């Protein structure tokens, strides 16, 4: 039930700090250490390459998951859109492990890949919010998101839950493989949950940004580099699916290779700056679009901020920034849709789970 909330989407955005805490708890053993099923860690360890398969927002979580697994566990990862993989399978490694990410566990495109790889005799792990869902039943292993039912068509708390579970999977696998991880993930996820609380409390500021940037525009761009690029494409998807504003996410460095031609006087450009290594270069990209008339909105992380920034998110570990930086985009999309009188929870032409290929 959505209780006093006007929409499920807003309720589900608000639930993210509690979901984060629930996940930390669910994946801790009785000594307070992160733990997952031994068979899963073993399968991860034996894989020479991991293939993440997903659609939509779950695919965007997979892009972040690749970074987490490669950086912590040091296993190469490829991320594929399910509907592409099924018709155009890449050359596979000798010992692949497949990870399916799906909130509903019912996405037909992902299931088609699962059926195909099971026929080839490969092992599969499904990360899903729905215990007993098709993708969960048909895979060898399952990890649950513990996000609680997600009703709004636009996925919010499932995205952050997927990234948190992928971080835990990467971390536990890293330890299993004796890879050094120089931070305590339980502690860092606790910091994330606290930061999330502050962010879901920033609704007025997000509503104001939505009003200022998105009330009348026909299009909007999201730019970022590294982790911020992946969050940018998720922010663009959120905005387009519920507000019907044409939105695209781009890697900051790609702008000059074509997209910058679309920038006109007043075009909203949302830029994320949460990564120290690319802070200067993304700010350079913002200058390039601003010089061509764009209306930039920089959202940065504490410690990397500058005077021109519109909003500063609390500091979290640099590998975990998507868990927090996505929240302003979720809220901005929500308010943009609201201001434009769109049906936030049930956008046109869309279903919550896409059970046809
Ligand atoms: O249930 P799934 O995670 O497999 O669904 C995948 C996509 O259909 C889903 O993420 C979709 O893109 C959402 N509407 C995005 O908000």
From TrEMBL:
Swiss-Prot/TrEMBL keywords: Aminotransferase, Cytoplasm, Glutamine amidotransferase, Repeat, Transferase
Gene name of the record: glmS
Protein name listed in UniProt: Glutamine--fructose-6-phosphate aminotransferase [isomerizing]
Catalytic activity line of the entry: D-fructose 6-phosphate + L-glutamine = D-glucosamine 6-phosphate + L-glutamate
Organism: Peribacillus glennii
EC class name: transferase
Keyword Transferase set for record: yes
Localization terms from the record: Cytoplasm
Coiled coil location: none
Biological role: Catalyzes the first step in hexosamine metabolism, converting fructose-6P into glucosamine-6P using glutamine as a nitrogen source.
GO molecular function, one term: carbohydrate derivative binding
Record: active site: 352 (for fru-6p isomerization activity)
Domain SIS, chain residue ranges per copy: 40-179, 209-347
């Amino acid at each position: 039930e959505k209780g006093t909330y006007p929409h499920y989407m807003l309720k589900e955005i608000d639930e993210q700090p509690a979901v984060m805490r629930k996940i930390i708890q669910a994946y801790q053993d009785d000594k307070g250490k992160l733990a997952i099923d031994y068979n899963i860690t073993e399968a991860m360890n034996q894989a020479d390459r991991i293939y993440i398969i997903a659609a939509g927002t779950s695919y965007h979580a997979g892009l972040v998951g690749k970074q987490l697994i490669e950086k912590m566990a040091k296993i190469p990862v490829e991320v594929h859109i399910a509907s592409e993989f099924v018709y155009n399978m890449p050359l596979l490694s000798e010992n692949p492990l497949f990870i399916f990410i799906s909130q509903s566990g019912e996405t037909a495109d992902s299931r088609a890949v699962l059926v195909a790889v099971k026929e080839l005799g490969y092992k599969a792990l499904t990360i899903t919010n729905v215990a007993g869902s098709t993708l969960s039943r048909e895979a060898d292993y399952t990890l649950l998101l513990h996000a609680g039912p997600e009703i709004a068509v636009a996925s919010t708390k499932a995205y952050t839950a997927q990234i948190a579970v992928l971080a835990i999977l990467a971390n536990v696998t890293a330890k299993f493989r004796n890879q050094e991880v120089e931070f305590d993930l339980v502690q860092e996820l606790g910091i994330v949950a606290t930061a999330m609380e502050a962010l879901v409390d920033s609704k007025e500021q997000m509503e104001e940004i939505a009003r200022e940037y998105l009330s009348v525009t026909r299009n909007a761009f999201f730019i970022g580099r590294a982790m911020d690029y992946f969050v940018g494409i998720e922010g663009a998807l959120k905005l387009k699916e519920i507000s019907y504003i044409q939105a695209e996410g781009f890697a900051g460095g790609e702008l000059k290779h074509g997209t910058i031609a679309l920038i006109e006087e007043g075009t909203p450009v949302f830029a994320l700056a949460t990564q120290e290594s690319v802070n200067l270069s993304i700010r350079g990209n913002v200058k390039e679009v601003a010089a061509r008339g764009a209306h930039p909105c920089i959202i940065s992380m504490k410690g990397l901020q500058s005077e021109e920034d519109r909003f500063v998110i609390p500091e979290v570990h640099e590998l975990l920034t998507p868990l927090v930086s996505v929240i302003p985009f979720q809220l901005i999309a929500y308010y943009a849709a609201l201001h434009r009188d769109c049906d936030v929870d049930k956008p046109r032409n869309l279903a919550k789970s896409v059970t046809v290929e």
